[in-house]
Amino acid sequence: MSIPFPLPDEAILARRDEILAGLAPLLPPEALITTEDERRAFETDAFTAYRRVPLAVALPTTTEEVSAVLRYCHEQGVKVVARGAGTSLSGGAIPQTDAIVLGLSKLNRILDVNFPNRTARVQAGVTNLSITEAVSAEGFFYAPDPSSQLACTIGGNIGMNSGGAHCLKYGVTTNNILGVRMVQMDGTILDLGGEAMDAPGYDLLGVMVGSEGQLGIITEAVVRILPMAEDARPVLFGFDTSEEAGACVAAIIGAGIIPVAMEFMDKEAIAICEAFAKAGYPLDVGAMLIIEVEGSGVEMDAQLAKIIDIAKQHNVRVVRESKSAMETAAIWKGRKSAFGATGRLADYICMDGTVPTGQLSYVLKRTGEICAAAGHRVANVFHAGDGNMHPLIMFDVNDPKSAASAEHIGLELLKLCVDAGGCLTGEHGVGIEKRDLMRYQFTEDDLRQQMRVRAVFDPQWLLNPAKVFPLDGRE
Amino acid sequence: MNVTMLIERLQPQSEQEACEIVKQAKLDRWSLAIEGGGTRAGLGRPVQADAVLSTRHLTGITLYEPAELVISARAGTPLAEVEAALAAKGQMLPFEPADYRALYGTQGEPTIGAVAACNLSGPRRIQTGAARDALIGVRLVNGEAQAVKSGGRVMKNVTGLDLVKLTCGAHGTLGLLTEVTFKLLPRPEAQATLILDGLDDAQAIAAMGSALSSPFEVSGAAHLPAGHDGAGAQTLLRLERDAQSLAYRAQKLVERLAPFGSVRRVEGAESAALWRDIAQVKPLTKAHGPAIWKLSLPAHKAAACMKAISENLGARYFYDWGGGLVWLAVMPGDDAGALRIRAAVAEAHGHATLMRAPDEIRKAQDVFAPLGAALMKVTSGIKQSFDPDGIFNPGRMYAGV
Description:
heterodimer; A: alpha+beta; Uridine Diphospho-n-acetylenolpyruvylglucosamine Reductase, domain 3; Alpha-Beta Plaits; seven-stranded antiparallel beta sheet; five-stranded antiparallel beta sheet; 18 strands; about 35% helix; B: alpha+beta; four-stranded antiparallel beta sheet; 15 helices; globular
């Protein structure tokens, strides 16, 4: 494992007791975690290959406590790593030994649901799914739906600009947030946006979303809630080859049809997910699309007829519609548990590059070749409609060579995505995982401009500083 | 902006040339007023600059992949050229870019770069998002004469800080956009507008709210209070679908709106004309005198806010975005009603932009809503980080920015 961490600040480590004593009066006693055993629970996130035990963990219960902790850390030069539910796949929430973790899990209330304005005000630590649960009785939902939505928090979603299976139609986090309350590193509390459709001045909310905990700590958000469709129906389409499935996706969009979701699985992913979820996926095909349509029964029938026509032109072998709510749930359970199900078989790393949809077939083919040449199994499961790929590269965690080789291949696949006209990460974030590839996608001037914007918010580089930007050449 | 006072008009042919010009401007301590088609020069605070930097020769569609729903064009490309290329393939910019030639009484062709720089969205914003939501990539020249890119051409991209959002709506104060990339939507086959007559503001907002809370994907929700052209109040709700689905949804929506009265329905070109007028602010721009404000309000507070404003000012106005946007015309007076309007809007947790007023008022008054000290500090910092010498559009948004 080869991603470097910055050298810890020895002066901070030496002052640990003093720093803990300074933090203690700012928080309720149970909100400051200092023992080694308890701190260890925060040493990594879902990018588990890397871990560092933090100096301490603060779990504030109010925006004011967040402000007090940050102001203190700012004065003392202590680094701060924000954490939601710790589900980051790119290491966004992995601490460093000379930093405190600032966890938002206790800020977990839905403060207000405003149906006439179609917005909800929630604290940063509420889970993604709980927002939808709070509004579904009235026929609404919160649209972005990352696979980890049962656990992941809205604060983390905003930090990473999370996507999900249904953003083809409904957009990603940045398109569904109207405002945040945030705390700057010096303790200043700022409201960006609010309950109106837009805000005056520069779109600071827009740059906060996806800033990976580097510009400030979000404590509250105003999210848009949307009316649910009358009904939704996923349909499974089986193809002999990944190339046919990829070409079918491009043809559907090219024909002016935007299904609410278009998910791709290759043969390996189908077998893994079917074994786990018993969703009725076809096992004798080389690739499968889950295409979901929405509307009334008649509307869905009409849209499906068009999609099936296109699929036939791409040699579709199996078409299987969901016939019940239970089948629909099973189909989505299979898809959303793909990462967990793969984890039962082998250790894996999950890549997240995006490519133009016209390049899907080529990139899939090259992915298979690159993994096969290095002797790794790979399962591909991803959001095809928007070209956001997720190759799961399997390896043996007990074999350091295998792990290193998987990591190396992962980086090669991300370069492949950039070469194909795409980007390093579609929804998981840069974190530490892709940090040292940033120069592959960006020029020095691009990166310096980003770093200058970063420095406006956090001139001392105290907020999640080991992430996103290569460690050398910082301004 | 009074362009005749300016001594030079710089018209780079390429991004590289634009970098050279900015490098020279930095050396010579010149400031530059950025100009696209010149149709919205009246938007923002008047700019005093040493020269005009025009995108006139930075034109052309550089990438259009209909099957990938993405288009890139150089910033000076006329919007009409982009829209024609899209229409030929049955596609469109999702956010219905606003054309303000009627508002400003200007000629010329709006450019795609200005659509991005000003984040200007029309009625469909309520359903498919704003220009800032569709803008997925930019290239710009910053105040250090560096060509910088952010975002790209793919639909999902969270690589690095989202500078695309910062530049969208920055009115050219952060740099010269040279190329912009938007995501697209298929153009719907058909449209219809359902019209409710005679509702007061509160009822209209409730009716629009009901429609927007339905599963029928209403793509426009506007309310014209009584008195426009001597007509009674009209509440307009647009559906855009394929013909079969449109018929079904229109019927369902009529049923849902029954508590608000009987519903009229117009289709096709007649419906499209209604929304073109809304997008171009035509209900208020037929008279040339008044100052015009754009208010951004939480929809549920809009009716009460407008009651407070109109009782004081005798103003004319209409709602778009289900009540989330109000276009307001007042007599200019000394301050175009700024004091009262900003107070009422702040009370409703919204904000107000003075979209049209004589230069002297826009010099003396804030055009964009004033920011608190903490926000202003960040705003100045962002400006510094892109344009430390204050070369681009000085003072366009805020004094000193």
